[in-house]
């Protein structure tokens, strides 16, 4: 793409601040937007022209939190809390080979680009340890689809059953022995693998880069937190963790650390501009201030929080505290569609059950900026993606104005946030390359991918059967224990609409 000049003509360019969508031409040199002007903008004779008449042009949406490894497990659970989902990990990931990991990430990338998402932060999970091959395969999947991604290997040094105070002791002896054999880690090995993978990362870091994903604060021991902190500094990359996602997690912190999870991470030197908290549902005002003071970001994942009953994150208060709040879908086992339009709509509408003062509610334009500019900042690409402006990378989504969502077109920002479900996505450009054209992924044979995915799942069936039995034996203890644990009082309440 270097040196190639393209011009997108006659599209209606969304201006979020002005709430307008006037026709404009966009000149793209290589992978970069070089000039924007009224229709008829001069372009070099050899510029490749793209007619965007009847298209509404918006910046590519940026997904602050997902797990590309879970895509083959979509639909596998129903009434799961976060803890029951974590308890089910050996089941949802059963029998997964490196080839399956590649396919899962590729399927995730296809779903995202088809839904107008051009970049994501993928906390890619492998058990019991990440692997250089698995991470590179996940990166290859995004590169092959043509999407931008930050791959953060999700890692733990202890399992759910050992991490929640009292849970292990509440298990019958045979089940204790069972979970003794299901340990993640060790941390030293995970850190060594990450160092090797960071050092030898084969992909273009401007498109697919590697980060670190210690899963959950108290699922990782302190030496491992320090190893992640040091690696992030050495390789100038970011850290994502699930922070106070559930009330169980928030409650676990006091007996373990004598302080909140956020304060614990701060004490370990983790919080900073390169730190992205996923979920952040059960934060206190002090926690929010700490994150804001350190320049950290949050990925607000409203659908997942609803689906797993984690609660409603205080997105308004987090923004008021000064935190950079991005939006994420989370993964197929808890969201379930990787649909950034849906996540953005929920982020906007759920701000409106947080208080009666409508002036504090998110405006639709603010929600859309969270899904674009705030996401870019969270992913470490601020000033490079998240806007359609000269000097930014050409990550552009073109919505069909023939879609019923825009008939009639009154206020593009409101209609995108409150009504778009991704079905109007016609063309998607990432880094100056068309990755979706007329609603079809350009770089992937979707029929072949479907056949490969279905064959992989067939192969996984025996492993899934055995893992399901184990999961169910544990779930009858884990579910009630955690529900009881979460019945304790906590400093803030993030459940609404109860008795
Ligand atoms: Zn997650």
Characterization of this structure:
This protein has 499 residues and is of the alpha/beta class. The chain has 2 domains: 5-58 and 392-441, Urease, subunit C, domain 1; 61-378, TIM Barrel (Alpha-Beta Barrel), CATH 3.20.20. The protein is built from 18 helices and 19 strands. The protein binds zinc ion (ZN).
Summarize the structure.
The chain is an alpha/beta fold. The protein has helices at residues 82-87, 89-92, 98-114, 132-145, 160-163, 167-170, 173-180, 187-199, 222-234, 247-257, 261-267, 285-293, 302-307, 315-321, 340-350, 364-378, 412-419, 446-485, and strands at residues 5-15, 20-29, 32-37, 48-51, 55-59, 61-66, 117-122, 148-151, 154-155, 208-210, 213-214, 239-243, 275-279, 297-300, 324-327, 396-400, 425-430, 433-437, 440-441.
How would you describe this structure in keywords?
499 residues; alpha/beta; Urease, subunit C, domain 1; TIM Barrel; 2 domains; 9-stranded mixed β-sheet; 4-stranded parallel β-sheet; binds zinc ion
Average pLDDT, to the nearest integer?
97
Unique ligands: zinc ion
Query: What fraction, in percent, of the residue positions are helical?
Result: 25-40%
Count helical runs: 18
Q: CATH homologous superfamily name of the largest domain? A: Metal-dependent hydrolases
The whole-angstrom Rg is: 22 Å
CATH topology of the largest domain: TIM Barrel
Q: How many distinct folded domains?
A: 2
Q: Could you list the spans in which at least 5 consecutive residues all have pLDDT below 50?
A: none
Straight-line distance between termini: 59 Å
Overall geometry: globular
Given helix and strand content, the structural type is: alpha/beta
Q: Biggest sheet, open or closed, and with what strands and sense?
A: 9 strands, mixed
The CATH class name of the largest domain reads: Alpha Beta
The fraction of residues in strands falls at: 15-25%
